[in-house]
Known about the structure:
Chain B is α/β, with parallel strands linked by helices. Chain B has four helices and eight strands.
Amino acid sequence: xxxxxxxxxxxxxxxxxxxxxxxxxxxxxxxxxxxxxxxxxxxxxxxxxxxxxxxxxxxxxxxxxxxxxxxxxxxxxxxxxxxxxxxxxxxxxxxxxxxxxxxxxxxxxxxxxxxxxxxxxxxxxxxxxxxxxxxxxxxxxxxxxxxxxxxxxxxxxxxxxxxxxxxxxxxxxxxxxxxxxxxxxxxxxxxxxxxxxxxxxxxxxxxxxxxxxxxxxxxxxxxxxxxxxxxxxxxxxxxxxxxxxxxxxxxxxxxxxxxxxxxxxxxxxxxxxxxxxxxxxxxxxxxxxxxxxxxxxxxxxxxxxxxxxxxxxxxxxxxxxxxxxxxxxxxxxxxxxxxxxxxxxxxxxxxxxxxxxxxxxxxxxxxxx
Amino acid sequence: xxxxxxxxxxxxxxxxxxxxxxxxxxxxxxxxxxxxxxxxxxxxxxxxxxxxxxxxxxxxxxxxxxxxxxxxxxxxxxxxxxxxxxxxxxxxxxxxxxxxxxxxxxxxxxxxxxxxxxxxxxxxxxxxxxxxxxxxxxxxxxxxxxxxxxxxxxxxxxxxxxxxxxxxxxxxxxxxxxxxxxxx
Amino acid sequence: xxxxxxxxxxxxxxxxxxxxxxxxxxxxxxxxxxxxxxxxxxxxxxxxxxxxxxxxxxxxxxxxxxxxxxxxxxxxxxxxxxxxxxxxxxxxxxxxxxxxxxxxxxxxxxxxxxxxxxxxxxxxxxxxxxxxxxxxxxxxxxxxxxxxxxxxxxxxxxxxxxxxxxxxxxxxxxxxxxxxxxxxxxxxxxxxxxxxxxxxxxxxxxxxxxxxxxxxxxxxxxxxxxxxxxxxxxxxxxxxxxxxxxxxxxxxxxxxxxxxxxxxxxxxxxxxxxxxxxxxxxxxxxxxxxxxxxxxxxxxxxxxxxxxxxxxxxxxxxxxxxxxxxxxxxxxxxxxxxxxxxxxxxxxxxxxxxxxxxxxxxxxxxxxxxxxxxxxxxxxxxxxxxxxxxxxxxxxxxxxxxxxxxxxxxxxxxxxx
Lengths: 369, 184, 417
């Protein structure tokens, strides 16, 4: 028999029901053997038309909507939206409100990165052990959220002009406990995973993004920082008083999945530092400025953004002077971080595609809104 | 690029409309249609050239497309572009106005910014604005054959269009079956 | 070899072959000629498989594994069904039996039906040659090691049949991966076992245990490299993490088992554990002294010692499964061919040289201990040297990112911060 063996590529569906696609998200990968030659994303399984629904509700009624976009970091979402409305309406937030906002946002970042690290190590195959360990720490943070706002996941805690409730008495000892427990956990994760030969060989050189490609594809967050671009909105465009706190931005070397992983680990350490500073210097005073129930900001537009755990979360609001936003647009980091997915997955194997998805750290609620 | 490293501004400078317009005019003359306080409206025909020149210019250095979305004012559409620079730490707001409600069309900036392709797909999906030159324009969140463009103001058209506000919550006011206008 | 204290009486539990001998001799007087051989086979099956292996499988493989992995993951294992969750395997079995075994319409029904049977049969055959005690082997074949290796290659066929028949792309992925992987890992496995055979001088499993008894040292000390290579290869053959790409849950859902449900899946799952127990038993027999424990087997029943050692070896499988991430399939093949095979060849070379020296000197006893010490040292050095040669340089990978205080654009890697 002369000639090469005839083989043909076939299309395989990764998702939407899959233990590892972090939600209902589907990739139609054309594979030739084990190598992926084309990857097409299909999304929209979770589309709830939040942007349209928000046009019927007042500005305060839209805050629970923002909880449910990126359901793993709801405090950050609330914060971004309230910042946008405050920018539109010109409302000042008192110092205590800002400090509480910072503490909540950083605790949320810790919780979200716990999940990201656990799920990423799970994708490489470590069979649930990192997930369980990371969730043990996340539970402590979720308990703090429950004490403060009443809910663990969709907190709905930020209000326009400050926060919803003041801090309760059990808050500070619980946060101190978390600040004591988390650094050993991060070190343990680093010992177990960052130096693990199998983990390194699974993640190093996988999904490499050059800085030019990262900038051109509008990426943000740990994906951008993993490629070596030192861009963090908490430093570049400080909000809520971030300029008073002393922390550093971790950046990676080559832009592969391993770099993103260690960037996230280091961000957790920096978040612990910020929470400690904010808690030590918590000012007294009012925690919220009073705003009317049906706030009518002057007509205009505002774009406010925060550094959510996944990247730059932006809210673009257009107001026509009425009690509801005329246009409510969420700039979702997970959605835009997927712009470069094809470049990252094509050329690797199916297993690499899963690892790349894990390192993008997507939340489908944010992708589909 | 040594001189840009030190002395990066501590807060992102939001370029006002006239400043952004000045950058755009110096990059591609004749590209600015009009200017407001906050935004600079570009002519659709010069959009891609202007953004490309601004990306490569040294003063503006607007390399990162942060946000691309559409807004439906009742009589016209606007496509909004937020572009920012890392080294200069500034952000500019450009807009393009489209008056045609039946077949709105804007040139696609995907050749300039690769990150625009998903956001343009989303804008097409929700508003119906076609982007000329887009490599693969398809309905990314909804499905092909969905009747209508949901984020338009006259979607689920009731008499007078959809009226936002406190007066009309979904499920409280009994209303007749909304007619869905199928846009051919 | 010390004469055994276990007597010929049927009630002497230290040597269970007394019971089977009494039963068979009694049956021989009653039954017509020849039927007793069938009874012997049945008795062997019951004794070796049903009494020894199946409870091990259920107790250690299902319950012990889940409890231990739960503890590794800082959670309790099963603790609802029965006291301390001890009835969990029974509950699992009942659940699987009463489940509907769905067969997809367009799958190959015949192949899908017989694949589990092909998977279970070799497991039963394997335990025929494992020595549980000095007289307690069902079939003392002179080449039992070869027999074991040959039979343990059969389950791959069943796996491939399962993956192919399901008419599902994920299953096909799993099936092809497992075939490639098994072929790659057979070779270092056999090479490492050859090293042990060269020292012991016999292919008979009982002979190897007696050799260990005679020289009072385990083969695992004399050829430690062979034990390590055997462990890695056999955990790859068994599809256990870190090499379980055939059933990689986070990538291809369940690999070749995607379309199986009910007791068909239960057979695959149970026999997976059964093969792991067989591999542990084999490792214990060859490398870890079998049913001997430096003289303790005179008083403690040797089959208890053997079962204890098997379970302890199985714990190693559970341990690696709970802690290590998974390798990609091409990395796995590279690991087998580039790392393990040369290592096994080095081992064989060293061991064969030692045997030759030993033979020339006339087989003095002390030489074995000298060889053991030398081999342990050389194995450690060889592992490190070979790993380093193959490219594992820990200093190459920075485990902490760079820290920057001011925001800016791209920071090149070479720039000093």
